Amino acid sequence: MLMEVGPTGSAASHAANPTSLHDVFFRIGGPGVGRATNTLTVNSDNVIGDHMWLWRADHGDGVGWAVNTADTGLTVNGDNVTMYGLFVEHYQKYQTVWNGNGGRTYFYQNEMPYDPPNQGAWMNGATRGYAAYKVADTVTSHQAWGLGSYCYFNVDPSVVADRAIETPTNPNVRFTNMVTVSLGGVGTIGRVVNGTGGTANAANQVVYLTNYP
Question: Is the pTM of this model over 0.90?
Fold first, then answer.
């Protein structure tokens, strides 16, 4: 882990004086080899992130699928955490995992990893690929607005990500204004949220979904 906000199991309310992170950038790999299982973990409640860029290098010198390994960019365990302008890109498993309740995201930019060598190397059990934004099954309240996820599987364009967003279906877990893109038609994102939304691929490179559920 490169950065941790609050210890594991944090439960104190910081609503009156929240921790805030502004213009915080992370890069794993390229030009030097770097590895990190988790990049940023937020355990504290009420944390505010403003303009965060979490990135695993997947093109350029000194990078490779088995070289600069990194599972997940952002893991949120705290409650009532808010992110503005969140960029999480190119990680090898879930890009963002949200375990806390009351989370809010305003603008989310994601590119899936460019470099899975084949579909077999990028499987989540029986699911093809990993979602860009994962809300845990135990979460009962979450909101996000303006989310984009893009694929460009240039090593093997036959690679598929089954979905961009994975979330429990709950009226208090809501997503508004989403887009998936197959950049140049190189690769496929099967659905926008869970099993909802069209397929982004060579034939239909941009897919919009206004609301979920």
Answer: yes
Q: Return all residues near 129 (Cβ < 8 A) that are at least 6 apart.
A: 112, 116, 122, 123, 159, 160, 161, 162
Angle (CA) 90 91 96, round 5°:
110
Catalytic (active-site) positions? 111
Are 70 and 62 within 8 A, CB to CB? no
Average pLDDT across the chain, whole number: 97
Distance, CA of 213 to CA of 202 (rounded, Å):
27
Q: Which residues contact 126 (CB under 8 A, 6 or more apart)?
A: none
- Take residue 7 and report the two structure tokens written for it: 């210890």
pLDDT digits (tens, 9 = 90+) for 163-208: 999 999 999 999 999 999 999 999 999 999 999 999 999 999 999 9
pLDDT (mean) for 3-26: 97
Give alpha helix (H) positions in the chain: none
Strand order across the 38-42 sheet:
3-5, 38-42, 72-76, 96-98, 133-135, 160-166, 188-193
Peptide bond connecting 213 to the previous residue in cis, omega within 30 degrees of 0: yes
Q: How far is CA 162 from CA 34, 40, 100, 116, 132, in A?
A: 28, 25, 24, 14, 11
Residue with tokens 């659905």: 191
Tens digits of residue pLDDT in 37-75: 999 999 999 999 999 999 999 877 779 999 999 999 999
